[in-house]
Design brief:
76% of the residues lie in helices and 0% in strands. The chain is mostly helical and 312 residues long. The two termini are 16 Å apart.
Amino acid sequence: MLAILIGLTIGILLPMQTSVNSRLRQVVGSPFVASFLSFTVGTIFLSLLLLLTGQSFGFDGSVIQEGPGWMWIGGLLGVLFLTGNILLFPRLGSVQTVIMPIFGQILMGLLIDHFGWFNSVEHPITVLRLFGVVLVLFGVIGTVALSDWLNRRRGKLVVSMETDTGNLNLWRLFGIFTGMMSATQTAINGYLGTVLESALKGALVSFVVGTLALLLILLVSRQPVPLGQLKGQPWWIWLGGIIGALFIGGNVLIVPIVGTGIAVIIVIVGLLCGSLLIDRFGWFGAKKNPVTGVQLVSLVVMVIGIVLIRLS
């Protein structure tokens, strides 16, 4: 039960991070600069948590020598997922940018659990488990796509896409791929936290790798970091990195307990709940939108799906 609460909480926080980082991107003028600042803040936050909990920054050298090489690339996959969303949004629109990666996350999460990839505990796919997944997917579509369709009918939503229809399927496949990489990152970071015997250390390593990757991108592209433009901005503009750190750390904690597939699905439900809260109350400068009955029913359907998956 604790793992479910943690998963829902970090999922609810994730769209808040997106809203904060969107504001940060507007101020600094570059998604990569904003991401670099967010990752840097998250790295500092995790480092302070490590010090406050009395843990050391070091770990046994045998972990590097004997551990699989893939356990260090979680941060790179996080950067890939972030960059993928940046590329997808203007081409697919907001709805498909949410749905395609979610489909990829659920698919990869089930495969990882079924085959025990990345040293995960095997959870074979059963009929009940598949039915639960179908309910979750229906819930996602109802929460995002049906509400989008209703808003279009009411003339409240305008979506522009910067690509022709001939390339849409390729971008949709790319969206599914980025979602699969996100689920892979979840599994890898969960294993890393277990090997290092610390969820905080596992999350910190992932953030350091992501920060260094983004720094390299900025150096190669010669993009400056305009810190002067951040003066006078609201204090919450720095929360994105902290929320990201809590998100990664929470995943590191729950994956060994419930498995990658269930962890991904629980977080997705929390993510959609957080999105509805931001829309309802207009947090972090977002435009207020009423929560519809279709969205509430869809959330209930997703919860039923999670229960069926958990019981299978």
